[in-house]
Amino acid sequence: MKINELLLPEFEQEIDGTRRMLERLPDDKFDWRPHAKSMSLGDLATHIANIPGWASAILASDSFDTIGPDGQPIRSARAGSRQEVLQLFERNVEEARRAIAATSDDEFAKKWALLAGGRQIFEMARYAALRRMVFNHLIHHRAQLGVYFRLNDVAVPAVYGPSADES
Fold it and tell me: What is the pLDDT of residues 63-101, one digit of tens each?
């Protein structure tokens, strides 16, 4: 079995769970944050919506630099509503799905590096970078969003099994 055939079902499972979370975003809480050092709910939701889009960048290039040509960190504009987050998420999911499906085993084995201002942070096979930077990163921030929901009395949907809010 090819790598992309192994990855796509897992990708779809994680996307489904993430979509269920994003569908519950409270529009009136986008500026809420649990701590001064934490992202706002809107920033976190936008970040989650963007993560699937990183798949195509990982699979189509040898590296990504988090610092732009202007010397500033690359940042995406924050979505302003649940609807905007969901639209961004679905666009990125479709792009990721196509990129994963089109990638050969040989391409998955090629090296990919994360850079910051030209300095290498890490380098690994594209397959491993996809798992770490897309799959695992998405799961991590989705769980963080679950904590934000709990602190705001938003029902947390079931992802891997029942949640305390859904039996």
Answer: 999 999 999 999 999 999 999 999 999 999 999 999 999
Q: Model-level pTM?
A: 0.96
In sequence order, the 6+-apart residues with CB closer than 8 A to the CB of 160 are: 17
Q: Is the pLDDT of residue 167 over 80?
A: no
Instruction: With respect to residue 161, please indicate whether it lies within any of the assigned structural domains.
Output: no
Q: How many folded domains does the chain comprise?
A: 1
Of all residues in the chain, the percent with pLDDT exceeding 90 is: 97
The enclosing domain of 66 has a CATH number of 1.20.120.450
Would strands 111-116 and 63-65 be described as parallel, antiparallel, or unpaired? parallel
The amino acid that residue 97 corresponds to is R
Residue 138 lies in domain: 3-151
Distance (Å, whole) CA 160 – CA 41: 22
Task: Dump the DSSP string for 70-127.
Answer: TSSBP-PPPP-SHHHHHHHHHHHHHHHHHHHHH--HHHHHSEEEEEETTEEEEEEEHH
